[in-house]
């Protein structure tokens, strides 16, 4: 399992709607960050959408990464059939071994049966091109429903992108999520978090912290994913500072510390 970074490692630097930096991080700068961090995988996700690049530009990105010894993983959101087919072609072009998808999108929340139908239609291409479709657990569906999606596909090329925090939005904790999803995991999103009670004691706040400084049982998590899990990708929920410049600096410092921790955990 190779350590890597994502466009969600540097979410603020790439640009959060309403808080865009004056000069957003480019896809080339993201790949250079991976090289500087000493990791060989970059997952380019939906906050840096590859659909906005031409075929020629995608070829340039792939070649740039290959020249630095970096592998690209393709990620996307909004898994309609048309978008799944489009991104499958992008993944094939980019030589991506996985295609990570968040199912829901703007005005798009398909039923389980609709999801099964969409996936079934692309299984021949997944198997022919040896690309694994990895569905990320998010905050609408439950972990058992993600397991059902994988099992009903009846294909070794469909699995889970296990995100360590997202399912809390569906009311599920780590024990449930890891217990159900780890056996099906092909791609791991390592996202550290803390939970603290608010000052008036009526509620909790869940937010990100540097890896190893929170509540995520990193070693136990890594031990539970199967050998076929290809990559452990650092993602971050970095709480903002008073300015975007300060936030980006904090995000970068957290990433530097967290990737060192992740690499040591995978040894």
What is this structure's SSE topology?
Elements: E1 2-6, H1 11-14, H2 27-37, E2 41-44, H3 55-67, E3 71-77, H4 81-93, E4 98-102, H5 112-120, H6 123-129, E5 132-136, H7 143-153, E6 158-163, H8 174-181, E7 185-191, E8 194-197, E9 204-207, H9 218-224, E10 231-235, H10 244-265
Parallel strand pairs: 1-2, 1-10, 2-3, 3-4, 4-5, 5-6, 6-7, 7-10
Antiparallel strand pairs: 8-9
Helix pairs in contact: 5-7, 7-8
Task: Give a verbal description of the structure.
The chain has 10 helices and 10 strands. By secondary structure, it is α/β, with parallel strands linked by helices. It has one domain: Divalent-metal-dependent TIM barrel enzymes (TIM Barrel, Alpha-Beta Barrel). The strands form 2 sheets. Strands 1-2-3-4-5-6-7-10 form an 8-stranded parallel β-barrel, surrounded by 7 helices. The protein has a two-stranded antiparallel sheet with strand order 8-9. The longest helix is centred in the C-terminal third of the chain and has 22 residues. The chain is globular and about 50 Å long. It starts with a strand and ends with a helix.
Q: Which structural category do the helix and sheet elements fall into?
A: alpha/beta
Order of helices and strands: EHHEHEHEHHEHEHEEEHEH
Count of extended strands:
10
Overall domain count: 1
- The largest sheet has its strands arranged as 1-2-3-4-5-6-7-10
Oligomeric state, counting identical vs distinct chains: single chain
Helix content: 25-40%
Mean pLDDT: 97
Give the overall shape. Answer: globular
Total of DSSP H or I helical runs spanning 4+ residues: 10
Q: Give a short account of the largest sheet.
A: 8 strands, parallel, barrel
Radius of gyration: 18 Å
CATH class: Alpha Beta
CATH topology: TIM Barrel
Low-confidence stretches: none
Strand residue percentage: 15-25%
CATH superfamily: Divalent-metal-dependent TIM barrel enzymes
So, CATH architecture?
Alpha-Beta Barrel
Ends apart, CA distance between termini: 10 Å
